[in-house]
């Protein structure tokens, strides 16, 4: 029991540190893209810049409007962060920490719950700008989570198991050739899931005044911010393990870098373009691939 608690504490600390330092990585990439220096003044190469940024957010004055739902407004950001941390219960580990058979279904349920956290946080703000941003995010999530679930179920069907631990076994040589076709759609779905450019419709500042989190500040905003950046890491590792487990030590940083660099490369798309692409292009292609794989598996 003591060893399990120690392993869980180390895992939690590693996750939170990774979330903190991905912000430093993004700002360093931003400096490279814009031909300027990134955060490099604080200590060695700006290594403690994320710590200072977090401390600055924590000590900011917490101003709450008088018209909000106080209970939900206070606790929903913490619940969003908790849902993000629960993803790591279903992740496969080299050592036995949280090993249960239906961990893939557990992760898919949590993916569906993320949108409800955004909707409740905006509704608790009692602000029409926040509500518009959350409604757009819910419609957006419905459009791509169907494709996301089909891809996850497709790979698990090939492995004949609902456990992510089985992805370490099976067609290790064939999956390198087979899984490359999914990387571009998966990066697009990670961008949409995390609200990143060019799919940051839930936080389109020019249209929605920062979207669902417009009324949040200080600690509550920090929790929402940590959950958003943490999902980039979580989904990148998850899909690398799922699609090509033999290269899961190297591909997460490639996918994370692709997600971060996309922010400085592409402008924000029109909202209907994402809807049209997900429903008219990506979903039919995913279903077609599913039918092909299912028929081949039967044969």
From TrEMBL:
One of its GO terms (molecular function) is NADH dehydrogenase activity. It is an enzyme of class 7 (translocase). Its EC number is 7.1.1.2. PROSITE patterns: COMPLEX1_ND1_2. It comes from the Eukaryota. It holds the Pfam family NADHdh. InterPro entries: NADH_UbQ_OxRdtase_su1/FPO, NADH_UbQ_OxRdtase_su1_CS. The chain crosses the membrane at residues 67-88, 100-121, 141-158, 170-192, 221-243, 250-266, 278-296. Keywords: Membrane, Mitochondrion, NAD, Transmembrane, Transmembrane helix, Transport, Ubiquinone. It is a multi-pass membrane protein. GO terms for biological process: aerobic respiration. The keyword Glycosyltransferase does not apply. It catalyses: a ubiquinone + NADH + 5 H(+)(in) = a ubiquinol + NAD(+) + 4 H(+)(out). It is found in: Membrane; Mitochondrion inner membrane. One of its GO terms (cellular component) is mitochondrial inner membrane. Belongs to the complex I subunit 1 family. This is NADH-ubiquinone oxidoreductase chain 1. It comes from Eucoleus annulatus. The gene is nad1.
């Amino acid at each position: 029991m003591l060893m399990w608690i120690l392993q869980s504490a180390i895992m939690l600390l590693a996750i939170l540190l990774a979330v903190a330092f991905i912000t430093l990585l993004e700002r360093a990439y931003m400096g490279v893209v814009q031909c300027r220096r990134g955060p490099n003044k604080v200590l060695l190469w700006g290594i403690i810049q994320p710590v200072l940024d977090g401390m600055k957010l924590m000590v900011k004055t917490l101003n709450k409007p008088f018209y909000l739902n106080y209970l939900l407004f206070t606790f929903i950001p913490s619940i969003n962060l908790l849902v993000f941390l629960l993803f790591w219960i279903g992740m496969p580990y080299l050592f036995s920490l949280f090993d249960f058979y239906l961990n893939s279904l557990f992760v898919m349920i949590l993916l569906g719950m993320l949108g409800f956290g955004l909707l409740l946080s905006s509704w608790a703000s009692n602000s029409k700008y926040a509500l518009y941003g959350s409604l757009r995010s819910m419609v957006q999530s419905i459009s791509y989570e169907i494709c996301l679930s089909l891809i996850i179920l497709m790979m698990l069907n090939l492995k004949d198991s609902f456990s992510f631990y089985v992805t370490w076994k099976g067609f290790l040589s064939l999956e390198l050739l087979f899984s490359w076709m999914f990387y571009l759609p998966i990066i697009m779905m990670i961008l949409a899931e995390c609200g990143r450019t060019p799919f940051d419709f839930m936080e389109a500042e020019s249209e929605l005044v920062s979207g669902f989190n417009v009324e949040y500040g200080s600690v509550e905003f920090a929790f929402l911010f940590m959950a958003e950046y943490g999902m980039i890491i979580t989904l990148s590792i998850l899909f690398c393990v799922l699609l090509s487990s033999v290269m899961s030590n190297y591909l997460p940083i490639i996918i994370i870098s692709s997600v971060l660099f996309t922010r400085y490369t592409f402008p924000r798309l029109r909202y209907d373009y994402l809807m049209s692409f997900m429903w008219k292009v990506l979903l039919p292609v995913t279903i077609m691939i599913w039918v092909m794989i299912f028929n081949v598996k039967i044969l």
